[in-house]
Amino acid sequence: MSLMETTLEVLPISKLAAIYNAAIEENNLTDFAPVKKFADKAAGVKRIQKLVDAHNLTLVDNGEGGVALLSTDKAPDEDAEEITLHTEELVEPKAKKTKAPKKEKGEPKPRGPAPEFANELKISVLVNGNPKKVGTPSHARFETYFAGDTVGDFIKAGGTRADLRWDIKHKFIKIG
Description:
The chain has about 180 residues and is an alpha+beta fold. Helices cover about 40% and strands about 10% of the residues.
């Protein structure tokens, strides 16, 4: 790989297209058409190499980190201002994109602690009869509200604290 190809390899594809198009314009090369972009970096380097070989061009460093293709028929100092206007800066190869740091989530919304019911609290039934479907386990557990007076009695009879929360939420019972 030549020094020029090595130099061009560090440039992004868009910069290669800009150098290629600037060389065509600066050197009045009518046998090459400007491009919007190259398919890939290798194609860009190959097309620039073809341009260099066909028209005896040289990759010129303007000393400020810029490069351009210049005809070897021109003296290096000739048209220096014009070269500077059309040069592209060398850039480091693109680093892999790093993910932005995740935004810190604020405090989670307080959902409130699950109500814990002390075993000695009294259960009051707010509905007439049993609202649960006859023959289901929940119907049988709801019947235990009528047999016991406290949360502890309900739990001993096979009820769960989830039953208590559900029935309170649906206003079947209250505790306290």
